[in-house]
Amino acid sequence: MSQHPPIGGIVPLDGAAPELSYPGLSPQLLARITQLWSAAGLDFDSHWRLAIRSLQGFRALPRVETSASSTDVDLVFLFDQSVIWVRALHGAANAGRQQGTPGLSPAQWHGLAAISARLTEQLAALRLLALTDLPMPAMQIARAISEDVDMALVILIRRKLAARFAACRTAEEASDFWRRHIAGGRAFRSISERLYAVGIDHSADTDYAKWRKSVLTTLGAAVHSNALSTGVPARPQDHVLLNGDSLHFATFRMHELCAFAQLVEPALTRALKAAARDETQPSPLAALAAPLCDILVNQIQSLSAPPTAPRQTAKRH
Questions:
Q1: What are the residues whose beta carbons fall under 8 Å from the beta carbon of 64, sequence distance 6 or more?
Q2: Do residues 249 and 215 make contact, with C-beta atoms less than 8 angstroms apart?
Q3: Which DSSP string do the residues of 60-109 spell out, in sequence order?
């Protein structure tokens, strides 16, 4: 996502309308998203300021006068919607952990709180890297985000595994847990099996699984690239992900986390609502976690569908 002029220019004031931070945003997308929030009885502007404007390293998008479409800006706007939900999820999960809210086990609350905190930092870093044209580290973080999405889903699927994760007390124990249960596609296999039981086929021979493996292979290459490499190859070489692609993949995976979490753990939304309601020291974002589940899933149609080959242009719905 090449931006000129470079990031670092004028940032709208704290009380400015959110859309001023997304010059060139599609009016139709803005209207659709704000309508979803309004229909749920939620104020978008104030919660956007709490969750996005307060991010460390926050940057507004620069105005690109020569842009032929709103696709890149729309993507960042949808990415930021995912960030709001993850920060809300963390608030509710942390409340559930502290209170022992029914619906999830203490270890599951612990796991969700820890992973959502890590996801918040990773998403903030990815946003900053993508907006400052640093594609290689952006790709590395997008890969870590995908792994944490899988880990969060596995914790919801397997309570005993969640307990093992919560029992980790040292870096060595955490590394061993990751190697035994998450790395190498182990988590994805467990997720695929549970999703298959509810009618979604993500087995290894499906187009989705092949696309996912292709993207993760490319992201992995960014992590393990040759130290003498001079940078990211330019398009149209196969399977090259640039900033927009890292943002797209991370946004898509966050949408998946939200949607699949409700499928593999039907009690999740009720549990999040209960955790926020019973919190003794309410987090300003915790109460958003449950209603934003439906809002985020409804945004999936605004994000281009995952391709079965390297993405060339975003297909709008």
A1: 3, 4, 23, 24, 72
A2: yes
A3: PPPP-TT-S-SHHHHHHHHHHHHHHHHHHHHHHHHHHHHHT-TTS-HHHH
Contact 76, 303 (CB under 8 A): no
For 252-277, b where at least 16 C-beta lie within 10 A, e where not — what string? bbbbbbbebbbbbbeebbebbbbbbe
C-alpha 235: how far from chain center: 25
- What's the number of CA atoms in the CB half-sphere (13 Å) around residue 301? 9
CB atoms within 10 A of CB 189: 15
For the segment 257-267, the average pLDDT, to the nearest whole number, is 90
Q: Where are the alpha helices (DSSP H) in the chain?
A: 27-39, 44-48, 71-99, 106-131, 135-157, 159-166, 171-181, 186-197, 207-223, 243-264, 268-277, 289-298
Residues across the chain? 317
Least confident of 24-38, 78-92, 219-233, 260-274: 219-233
Decide if 223 contacts 143 (C-beta within 8 A).
Answer: yes
pLDDT tens, residue by residue, 209-245: 665 666 656 555 544 443 334 344 443 333 333 557 8
**pLDDT computed for residue 235 by the predictor:** 39
SS (H, E, C) 124-163: HHHHHHHHCCCHHHHHHHHHHHHHHHHHHHHHHHCHHHHH
Residues 6+ apart with CB under 8 A from 277: 287
Residues with Cβ within 8 Å of 105's Cβ and at least 6 positions away in sequence, in order, are: 159, 162, 163
- Answer yes or no: are the C-beta atoms of 152 and 115 closer than 8 Å: yes
The model carries a pTM of: 0.82
Identity at 27, one-letter amino acid code: P
Q: Decide: 203 and 192 in contact? Cβ < 8 Å.
A: yes
Nearest to 115 by CA among 103, 105, 107: 107
Query: Does the CA dihedral 242-221-248-304 come out positive or negative?
Result: positive
Tokens 């009720």 found at: 270
